[in-house]
Amino acid sequence: MKHIFKQGSDASAPVLLLLHGTGGTERDLLPIAEVVSPTSSVLSVRGNVLENGMPRFFRRLAEGIFDVEDLIFRTEELNAFLDSAAEEYQFDRRNVVAIGYSNGANIAGSLLFHDANALRGAILHHPMVPLRGKELPNLSGIPIFIGAGKNDPICSSRETEDLTAMLTQAGASVDVHWENYGHQLTRTEVDAAAAWYNDQF
Ligand code: MLT
Questions:
Q1: Where do the domains of the chain lie?
Q2: Confidence class of residue 133 from pLDDT cuts 50, 70 and 90?
Q3: What's the pLDDT score for residue 13?
Q4: At CA 130, angle to CA 129 and CA 132, rounded to 5?
């Protein structure tokens, strides 16, 4: 997968896996990694799917309606990419914390839904429930931050509440941060995620 790897100054700090939103690139979230954990190594990946020229991490049939078969295929593809990147760049595969926004948060959520060992933790900015009707793995010991907007037209509050309940039931410890805005990622939300991260790791 097309990506950027930046070696951090602290080899024991979690490696930040950055996952952009629809139409973004692997450069988009680099400034956020600097705010959250400036000493971490960073692996920032570009989604392999194109929707009218816009990179994404999996196909969708319409806004908020996912192609579940492709979602599962792309989740496995990203998970396998993380395994090979850990070998190539010599980092601890068990020490990866995802930061995803929108479509990137959704594939990070899907990693958590499919494999308890995919991520050590996750910061999900404006995620949706990636898929329903699936039994989740045991996610105990995995801290998850969810940033949501009360007026987000793409992810309703209900979607945030459902996702929180599903992850919590699977044993994850979930903290939800609400903003009064829409789908955009605000500086106050990033600062809240950074404060949360520093409490966890
Ligand atoms: C998705 O397709 O993952 C969500 O609708 C969010 C987005 O537009 O990327």
A1: 3-200
A2: very high
A3: 98
A4: 75
